[in-house]
Amino acid sequence: MANINNILAASTSTAKSSRGLNGTQRLTELASRLASNFIEEVATSDVSDEELLDAIKSNDKLDSLIRELIDVEPAYDDVDYFLSLGDDFATKALKSQQSKRSRLKNKTLTSDTFYGITTAACAEITLRDIFGLAKHAGGAGARRGSVSYTDDELDELAADQEALKKALRNVQSKKSIMKSKAGFDPESAAWLELLEAEEQLKSRREKTTRTRTVKVDETKAALSELLSSADTAKMSKQQLMELIASVQGLTTEE
Q1: Confidence at residue 241, expressed as pLDDT on a 0 to 100 scale
Q2: Contact, 142 vs 54, CB < 8 A?
Q3: Which sequence spans correspond to the domains of the chain?
């Protein structure tokens, strides 16, 4: 059984109301109800803290867990309402929810971010079910030239950091080109997709401080070993000079 409070940090902010596309508020209300149902179910299920954390980090796993624990099929009147908004709403709203999930996954996991991630996931699931949008490229609603990445593709790029850097530069180049064009629309599906892809790639970059930390630890160990065997009280001036030179050599070598 997952004890959600055990894996959440203290909240430092409150959820903000949604604005923007016509229909967004109703979509958020529906998704919020589903998210609340899911959170209640997961708290009494046999899902462990580790499984829940793993699902939060993976869109595919979280979607599967949500579908497993609750009934995500929206009411009939909601279906008719959302269909009346058209495919353009569906495309923009879907990209907006995906971008929101990416941003929240990179923040500290608090009750607010957990609720936000779950709500965005439920909104995405709802949109896909109502409009028949496939999860990955190749299905209904897929767009040519898509730059979205699946979890498996991100895992492969994370294992090859040079390829990941190249993919990130490519996305950022596309952003620059798109932003420079006349009639640039920051709410367009293509722009939101680029933002999502950029967040996905950035989340898989290795921390650059790890190598430096290891190097510092190695230097400290070498200094400790060198000084532990040195009896400076009995050393001659020449021996002290040699010891100092050895210490300088350790602390300045690349």
Answers
A1: 67
A2: no
A3: 1-141, 143-206, 212-252
